[in-house]
Specification:
Helix 6 crosses helix 7, helix 7 packs antiparallel against helix 9 and helix 13 runs antiparallel to helix 14. The strands form 5 sheets. This protein has an 8-stranded mixed sheet, with helices on both faces. Helix content is 32%, strand content 26%. Strand 2 and strand 3 form a beta hairpin. With 477 residues, it is α+β, with helices and mostly antiparallel strands. The protein has 2 domains: 130 residues, OB fold (Dihydrolipoamide Acetyltransferase, E2P); 254 residues, Bira Bifunctional Protein, Domain 2 (BirA Bifunctional Protein, domain 2, 2-Layer Sandwich), CATH 3.30.930.10. It is built from 15 helices and 20 strands. The structure holds one RNA strand of 75 nucleotides.
RNA sequence: GAGGACGUAGCUCAGUGGUAGAGCAACGGUCUUUUAAACCGUGGGCCGAGGGUUCGAGCCCCUCCGUCCUCACCA
């Protein structure tokens, strides 16, 4: 048990004894702190303002106190003195760091020049029973920062800024797409067959139906059914779940944008991808030249288009020379024995080429085997009409000219299912047999894009509550 | 899954085998323009959990839990 907790409970009781609630109700008339503070000038000096927020610092001089009060928009100093507050002074003596208060006061400057609200009235809105993290080291422990994100957001202003940017990123994305005539839809999270990507799914169980379902690993399949149904320009922004490892670029649940554009193709998606990312960078990151860790990323379009095989050659590998490639993998401690030829190529690409990409590159014309839902390049059947957009060594986007031949689609899905009919999505194939228009489609990893736009090195820094093991309950309290 | 690092007060951290510490936060006091306010005083610990070695363990050994990093996995 924490004695500070007990002390604060005692305080709350004293506040109650003064006839006031330590946990107040609705508070009207508060203006955002940031704009109020920055409005200081001849117009506003001496005028009365009301703000509300959390007390983040408390400098007491007995019969006068300086407070820092913070809301989502900023921070302002409040000066409270006994003779100005009169009757509410007794109550105010029980206000401390971490409490929520509402303040009415006149705007001015102290003699050290700090913009200050000289309080005429203070209301206690919520008494906090637990303390805030320490005031200048803040909350450092990454485990506590992620488990108790609410404290992280209070203690580390940059964290709040990151998540505000992420929020704006999502709304800008919707604005951008809506303005171009794309319709947002919602499709099921629980699937009978986990399709649209190759990843291990999470399994869940429906009791009344007594059967298992998979949490979706991609949005692709239902969105393509909507293409068949006549949603010609459609997108979904949603959570997908992959039951795989966790590291700085992977969280088991993450957010994807997937979008389909009937009558378009890969080129349509390149323009969209470039345009969208450029728009977001301008709106969220303030420009196209972004610091990212030690690097600087230049997002200026047009992004270079490079074929997969050409990139391998540029890095000194002959895509046709499997022996050379396999030797290189072994040198890197990777065993290629069970890999198909295309898997070796993909592995080399991931090892050698991908980490070296800093500025955005559209990598195109990958081996067709990697992508059962992608159309072959017309006249080049071994190559997928696909791009992956890489930035800062990360894949942030993956797009196809979509395969709309239902006969080939069935063959490729059945081949992938390797004879297990239960793994073939017959309803998807049936939909395609009704005629899916030619289309371009794209997926964008929202979390990774957020990492780049907010200059954060780990996906956990852009997900409010990243997956952690359950804390040892004995460690609580 | 493998290797490494870490886990001590609410927070940030000292403490390499001999009486558990500091700063901030909290509480009491002085103080009506401070900026990490200052000063005086007080309280606060299953040292992640369990086992072992030892006269004696926060410290050494083992197991477990958790976090981070690197690698592996990851169309």
């Amino acid at each position: 048990m924490s004695s500070e907790f007990d002390e604060r409970v005692r305080r709350a009781g004293q506040i109650g004894a003064l006839g006031s609630s330590p946990w107040g109700n609705r508070f009207d008339g508060a203006q955002p702190i940031g704009p109020v503070a920055s409005s200081f000038g001849v117009e506003t000096e001496g005028k009365s303002f009301t703000v509300a927020g959390r007390v983040t610092a408390h400098r007491s001089f007995g019969k006068a106190v300086f407070l820092d009060v913070r809301d989502r928009t900023g921070k302002v100093q409040v000066y409270a003195r006994q003779d100005a507050l009169r009757s509410s002074w007794e109550l105010f003596k029980h206000v401390g760091i971490a409490d929520w208060i509402g303040v009415t006061g006149t705007l001015g400057k102290t003699r050290t020049g700090e913009i200050t609200l000289f309080a005429t009235e203070i209301a206690l809105l919520t008494k906090a029973l637990r303390p805030l993290p320490e005031k200048w080291h803040g909350l450092q422990d990454p485990e506590l920062r992620h488990r108790r994100r609410y404290l992280d957001l209070i203690a580390n202003p940059k964290v709040l800024e990151t998540f505000q940017k992420r929020s704006r990123m999502l709304s800008e994305m919707r604005r951008f797409l809506d303005a171009r005539g794309y319709l947002e839809v919602e499709t099921p999270v629980m699937h009978s067959i986990a399709g649209g990507a190759a990843a291990r799914p999470f399994v869940t169980h429906h009791n009344a139906l007594d059967r298992d379902f998979f949490l979706r690993i991609a949005l692709e399949i239902p969105l393509k059914k909507l293409l068949v149904g006549g949603f010609e320009k459609v997108y979904e922004i949603g959570r997908v779940f992959r039951n795989e490892g966790i590291d700085t670029r992977h969280n088991p649940e993450f957010t994807m944008l997937e979008l389909y554009h009937a009558l378009g193709d890969l080129r349509t998606m390149m323009e969209l991808c470039e345009g969208l990312v450029v728009h977001l960078a301008k709106e969220i990151a303030g420009g196209l030249t972004l610091p990212y860790g030690e690097k600087v990323i230049d997002l200026a379009p047009p992004w270079p288009r490079k074929e997969f095989y050409d990139l391998l050659r540029e890095h000194g590998f002959d895509p046709a020379d499997q022996e050379q490639l396999r030797t290189e993998l072994r040198k890197r401690g990777i065993d290629p024995a069970k890999m198909d030829a295309w898997e070796v190529l993909d592995e080399i690409f991931g090892e050698v080429v991908q980490p070296q990409i800093v500025n955005p590159v559209f990598v195109t014309a990958q081996p067709i085997e990697m992508t059962p839902l992608c159309r072959r390049i017309d006249g080049r059947p071994a190559h997928a009409d696909r791009f992956e957009a890489y930035v800062a060594g990360m894949e942030i986007s993956n797009a196809y000219t979509e395969l709309n031949d239902p006969i080939e689609q069935r063959a490729r899905l059945e081949e992938q299912a390797a004879g297990d009919a239960s793994k073939t999505d017959h309803d998807f194939l049936r939909a395609m047999e009704h005629g899916m228009p030619p289309a371009g489609g794209i997926g964008v990893g929202i979390d990774r894009l957020a990492m780049i736009l907010t200059n954060n090195p780990s996906i956990r820094e852009v997900i409010l509550f990243p997956l952690l093991r359950e804390a040892d309950s004995g460690a609580e309290e």
